Amino acid sequence: MTTSGPDREPAAEPDNRPNRPSGECAMSPDSPNPGLQEPGTVETVRTNGDYLKGHEQCLKEVEAQFGIIRDRLRGVCNGFSKGFYLCGPPGVSKTHTVVNFLNDNSIPFEHVQGHLTGSALFDVIEENPAGVIVLDDVSNIFRNDDKGVQLLLAALGSPPDGSRVRKVPYRTARGKRVVGFAGGVVAISNLGIDEHRNDVIAALADRVHVQKFDPTPEQVEALIFKIAMKGVAGVAAEDAVMIARFLAEECRKRGTRLTIRLFIDSALPDFRMWKAGKAENHWTMLVRATVAKEFVPQRHAVRGMSHNDQMEADRRIVLAICKEFSDPMEKVRAWKQWNETVRRGSATKH
User: In this predicted model, what pLDDT tens digit does every residue of 201-232 receive, in sequence order?
Assistant: First the structure.
């Protein structure tokens, strides 16, 4: 089957904007953009090499964060710590990083995703009394399930006798069940530990190591490009790099937060569907539609954004805030919080 669009988008006009200063890790809107070259050409290989060099500092910075995460996981897996709380915005590969580390090191673990009741959590602990338990989106437990919170805190407690075995009790109408738990818990959440109830914060922070992974847009772009350079999800490296660069540029234009999930779960499948001749529209049109529909405000200021682009980004942020909050005071609070985040992000770059 043939596609309705051309084999590739034509290359963009040469970008004559000045090069960014050496030492910056970001590919900002003011950086050279050679457009979408045909994969496999000498020009594509050259520009991809330049692009990778432009991200080297970002990759070093984010790899240092990954190193801390891996060591925290080693601590849990080897019994040096009882738990690890990893938080950060959605789509930045928190779960992927944890699961890959455990699989790569042949460490058995129980991965629990989605909503989990107190009784279900007890069952998981009972079935894995000495293992590693990975709880995805643990925030649901902290918000809505007091029994679940108490079970989790008991599993992460410190026995008075200094033993590694923590007694986890669970009461039902039929009686009391107790599990001796000597394993570890890795909790993954989109919420920072300070965004939960105060009593939970104090109890949890005293029991586990906490790491916030909130990479800048430049670091996320560097990670996506690194993934693309190896080829991913059945897409050749040259095509994957082209898709990554196009997605990053579209997110910059709209002020949308670029995420690894957006690249892996949306942009790459759109390209594969188009290449297979199953799409009516060119893959770039599908990516644009996804970025426009799933707008998420940036958590960091984007360096080098023009005044008009910044005005458009602000407008979209206001629309997103109005859509999320109905109370006027909440809208004002969210806007002030956003502006404070931008100021802090800008201050750290100067």
Answer: 677 777 888 999 988 888 889 889 888 988 88
Q: d(Cα 209, Cα 205) in Å, to the nearest integer?
A: 7
Residues whose CB is less than 8 angstroms from the CB of residue 320 and which lie 6 or more positions away in sequence, other chains included: 295, 296, 297
Q: Could you confirm whether domain 82-207 is CATH 3.40.50.300?
A: yes
* DSSP-assigned beta bridge partners for residue 111: 134
The encoded tokens of residue 50 equal: 């330049």
**Minimal CA–CA distance to 151: which of 203, 197, 111?**
203
Spell out the long-range contacts of 198-204 with Cβ–Cβ below 8 A and sequence spacing 24 or more.
200/142, 200/149, 203/153, 204/85, 204/153, 204/156
pLDDT surpassing 80 at residue 4: no
Residues 258 and 265: their CA atoms lie apart, in Å, by 12
Domain layout of the chain by residue ranges: 82-207, 216-344
Neighbours of 265 (CB within 10 A): 14
